[in-house]
Amino acid sequence: MGQTLLAERVPTRPSADERVASVELAATPLPYAIAKRTLDITASALLLALFSPVVLLVAVLVRLDSPGPVIFKQKRVGTGGRLFTFYKFRTMALDASARFPDLYAYR
After folding, report:
1. Domain presence at residue 102
2. In total, how many domains does the chain have?
3. In principle, which of 14, 39, 78, 103 could form an S-S bond with 18, CB 3.0–4.6 Å?
4. For 93, which DSSP code?
C-alpha cells in the first residue's frame, strides 16, 4: 500500500507581479447551515427586542437635536460588486455639505 505524504504549506509574500488566487470554500453540511441560520435569526430577534428601547431613545435624541430624517441611507458597493442600501442614524447636520468649510475649520 502506498503512503500519502502531506505537504506543509509555507506562507510566502507574493511578488508585485503575482496575482492572488481566489480561495475555494468547502461545502457546508446542510444540517449545520440550517442550525446556524436558525440561531442567527433567533439571536438577532432577541437582541433587537432587548435593545429596541435604546434604539428608540437614540432616534428621539437625533430628531430633537436637528431637523431632518433620523435615518441616513446610502447606496454602497458590497461583496461581488453588488449594490445594497446602507442605513444608520444620522450623525451630521442635514446641510453639512453646504457648511463643509465651516464644519472642518481647525481653530
Report:
1. yes
2. 2
3. 14
4. -
How many Å apart are CA 32 and CA 17, to the nearest integer? 40
Q: What angle do CA 103, 78, 37 make, to 5 degrees?
A: 120
3-state SS assignment for residue 24: coil
For 9-67, write each residue's pLDDT tens digit: 555 666 555 555 556 667 788 999 999 999 999 999 999 999 999 999 999 998 898 88
Domain that holds residue 42: 29-65
Instruction: Using only the alpha carbons of the chain, give its radius of gyration.
Output: 24
Nearest Cα neighbor of 60 from 96, 95, 90 is: 90
In the structure grid, which three cell numbers stand for residue 44, read together?
438577532
Diameter of the chain by CA atoms? 79
Q: Are residues 78 and 53 in the same domain?
A: no
